[in-house]
Amino acid sequence: MAAWLARARAWRSRLLTAALTLLGLLVLTFFIGRVMPVDPVLAIVGPDADTSTYNQVAAQLGLNKPLYVQFGHYLGELAHGRLGISLLTGNAVSADIARVFPATAELATLAIVIGVLTGVPLGVFAATRHGGWGDNVVRMISLSGYSVPVFWFAMMGLLVFYAWLGWAGGSGRIDLEFDGVVRPLTGFLLFDSAVTGNWAACASALRHVLLPACILGLHTMAYISRMTRSFMLAQLSQEYILTARVKGLPEWQVVWRHAFRNILVQLLTIVALAYGGLLEGAVLVETVFAWPGFGQYLTNSLLLGDMNAVMGCVLVVGIIFVSLNLLSDALYNIFDPRMH
């Protein structure tokens, strides 16, 4: 009973910390946005508008009030589930985010799957061949994937696999002939087209998403393989590994059942944070591939000074990272035997 109470108090503290983190993120973003050199009123009325028109629009947006009043009004709207109206599209910010986020989530999910399925085995392979040619090759691949700018990979990928070889689908999420054909159920084109039985559209969406997902997956693979290698090297030098080998256990059991099992908890956190980074940091790849996703929407909103959209996006990003951290803590409790 005492253990359950301690865990409940710990989770209550984590949730309170998460709420304060989100509030601090909103405060910081709001006040930084208000001192940006971009004027959202000018973006609406244009540079040739007269003073009365400018003041009228500023009053309609509430920008003529003190900053603390503006922030209080924003929190009040947020408490009712309203994120405001986007100056970029004229739609509710919540509706815009719901429209663009599935595109990024689909891309990021495929990328993290590719990154994990390639990065973890490569990291284990490198650690078990520490100092050898295999380790050096994996380290070189990881260093290249992590150091070379992702937008360069994106442009080279388009040039080689789309322009020269014709294997990839090019820019956008789907061929123009299928645009608007797939009935939107979840916003995930691959899933929606498969569920509705439109296999031609599904194949088109797959051709479009594979190249940007592989490019993001390469970048993620480099990070995950490096961390996996470091974690495995630390475990393979432990005494219990030597004991397992002395007992005559097969090497694959020593590596996967003993060493890898003990780094699983650490890897969960790495993968969760990498996934969160993909969800909010894929803007360069989205720009190169004209991918109508969350990152592109946030960038365009920043350039216009559309603070309602920026605040909504920042809130979503904050919720994603806080949620992934809480999920990591929960998985720690499940997979770490010391927590039982």
From TrEMBL:
It is a multi-pass membrane protein. Residues 101-332 form the ABC transmembrane type-1 domain. Its main location: membrane. PROSITE patterns: ABC_TM1. It comes from the Bacteria. The chain crosses the membrane at residues 107-128, 140-165, 205-224, 267-289, 309-335. It is found in: Cell membrane. Keywords: Cell membrane, Membrane, Transmembrane, Transmembrane helix, Transport. PANTHER family: D,D-DIPEPTIDE TRANSPORT SYSTEM PERMEASE PROTEIN DDPB-RELATED (PTHR43163:SF8), DIPEPTIDE TRANSPORT SYSTEM PERMEASE PROTEIN DPPB-RELATED (PTHR43163). Belongs to the binding-protein-dependent transport system permease family. This is ABC transporter permease.
